[in-house]
Amino acid sequence: MSQKVLLNAKEVNIILHRLACQLIEKHTDFSNTVLIGLQPRGVFLANRIASILKDDYRVNNVKLGYLDITFYRDDFRRSEKPLEANTTKIDFLVEDKNIIFIDDVLYTGRSIRAALTAIQSFGRPNEIELLTLIDRRFSRHLPIQPDYRGRQVDVINSEKVVVNWKEHDKEDSVYLIEK
Ligand SMILES: O=P(O)(O)OC[C@H]1O[C@H](OP(=O)(O)OP(=O)(O)O)[C@H](O)[C@@H]1O
Ligand SMILES: O=c1cc[nH]c(=O)[nH]1
After folding, report:
1. Closest residue by CA, ligand 1 atom 5
2. Beta-carbon contacts of residue 4 (< 8 Å; ≥ 6 apart)
3. Ligand 2 center to 157 CA (angstroms)
4. Residues above pLDDT 70, as percent of the chain
5. pLDDT digits (tens, 9 = 90+) for 91-116
6. Is there a contact between 87 and 66 (Cβ–Cβ < 8 Å)?
7. How many Cβ atoms from other residues are within 10 Å of residue 77's Cβ?
8. Residues in the ligand 2 pocket, defined by CB under 6 Å
9. Which residue minimizes the CA distance to atom 16 of ligand 1?
10. Closest CA to 86 of 119, 35, 43
11. Which residues line ligand 1 (CB under 6 A)?
């Protein structure tokens, strides 16, 4: 198995700050905007973005939730193993809110499609945007694109992008791995 570093910790940090600033540019004080990290791995990115907004840019109003999409995926019946759901935690109203979905990688777009279905159970948002650290270009199965992207990469199908977070994986990094 070969692997190549796409982003190191310093580059990840710079990108996270840029994404936070782009969010502030559009959503100002977040009075009608909420962040929703997609389980499982979008949650790490969502936590980071929320912390940067609060600690580095003094946005005090940030609401953060987590959304599990396991049983909303269009392929969940095809799974050979029993599926285990993750926690959904949304302790605020989404009705008429501006939602920002946050996930680490955007590939086919099927996870985001599932999230769009799952969130409907919580109400009717005003709008939904998507923030992703890595946008795998030319690989979409659905017409879904990010509004805020950390890095766009060209990846062939035999390769996988792996995003690591220091609080879970010992380092912040993004690797391209030959499967
Ligand atoms: O745009 P998509 O094709 O849905 O892929 C993106 C998803 O893939 C990863 O999750 P995970 O590793 O759980 O999913 P995977 O098994 O599809 O790679 C990643 O955390 C995204 O949520
Ligand atoms: O390369 C990919 C594709 C989907 N999900 C990932 O985490 N990486």
Report:
1. 107
2. 175, 176
3. 10
4. 100
5. 999 999 999 999 999 999 999 999 99
6. yes
7. 8
8. 105, 107, 136, 160-161
9. 111
10. 43
11. 38, 41-42, 103-111
